[in-house]
Specification:
Length: 257
């Protein structure tokens, strides 16, 4: 019992610290929460080159103490707007496919939580990646299923696309709960960045080793580890701390359109 208590304390310490920090508004209602743009996406009218971006923001309400919600945005060369892809749990409750594709500003706050930018690729490299991303989106294996924990959820979706498009080198943070969900029977896969591999039992326990992710352990869907290449530590709830934590670009709210 003593070991179990210590283990639970280690796993829950990060989310508890996030709650105590006041970063999560437990009183907010989704209908009035900010969706202001963060200023992380270029203006398509001034950016003719192709763009690929991946975003993440703290999940709404108490879930934000544990996890982020992630999504993918693309803009083809000379396109007048961004296209974004994400998985939304409420769509499953309404009996429609969970993968949502839309157009518009991809860098809006996620119901009060400003996003971070995990991937930003532009020019010919982005042009080459967009058809691969679109094909990976269409191949998502859980189009009608959603589970907050351990998955499949929005982070399962983003990780799936990352594995199939390794040139994105998508390094999802440990707060992307659900990224390690490989399905009920699959236990072996590339890491989401495509630079390593992972073992995972239904997203509840496993280990990942990759050039981008470093060494990461997953227990009960919560991940912690060390990233030697970026001189960073990875914690449940908290995310990435250290020199490598600056790789994700955060922004302050911009004016609402």
């Amino acid at each position: 019992m003593g070991i179990l208590f210590v283990l639970l304390l280690v796993l829950l310490a990060g989310p508890l610290l996030v709650l105590l920090s006041g970063k999560i508004d437990l009183e907010a209602h989704w209908s009035s929460a900010s969706r202001a743009p963060a200023g992380l996406a270029p203006d398509p009218a001034e950016t003719p080159e192709a763009v690929v971006q991946v975003y993440g923001a703290r999940a709404f309400s108490w879930r934000g103490a544990f996890a982020v919600h992630t999504w993918i945005a693309t803009k083809a060369e000379n396109a007048g707007s961004f296209t974004y892809h994400e998985v939304l749990g409420w769509r499953a409750r309404r009996g429609i496919p969970v993968v949502a594709t839309g157009s518009g500003r991809p860098d809006r706050a996620w119901y009060g939580q400003m996003p971070e930018l995990y991937v930003d690729i532009r020019g010919p490299e982005a042009s080459a990646l967009i058809p691969q991303i679109e094909a990976a989106v269409r191949s998502y294996p859980y189009p009608d299923t959603y589970g907050i924990w351990p998955g499949p959820n929005s982070n399962t979706f983003t990780a799936h696309v990352g594995r199939l498009v390794p040139d994105m080198r998508l390094d999802l943070p440990p707060t992307a709960v659900g990224k390690d969900y490989l399905g009920p029977w699959r236990v072996w896969a590339r890491s989401p960045s495509g630079t390593g591999y992972q073992l995972s039992a239904r997203g509840l326990a496993g280990v990942m080793v990759g050039l981008e992710e470093g060494l990461e352990l997953n227990l009960l869907g919560l991940s912690f580890g060390v990233d030697p290449a970026d001189l960073a530590l990875r914690f449940p709830g908290i995310g990435v701390l250290g020199a490598g934590s600056g790789r994700a670009i955060a922004a302050s709210p911009a004016e609402e359109d």
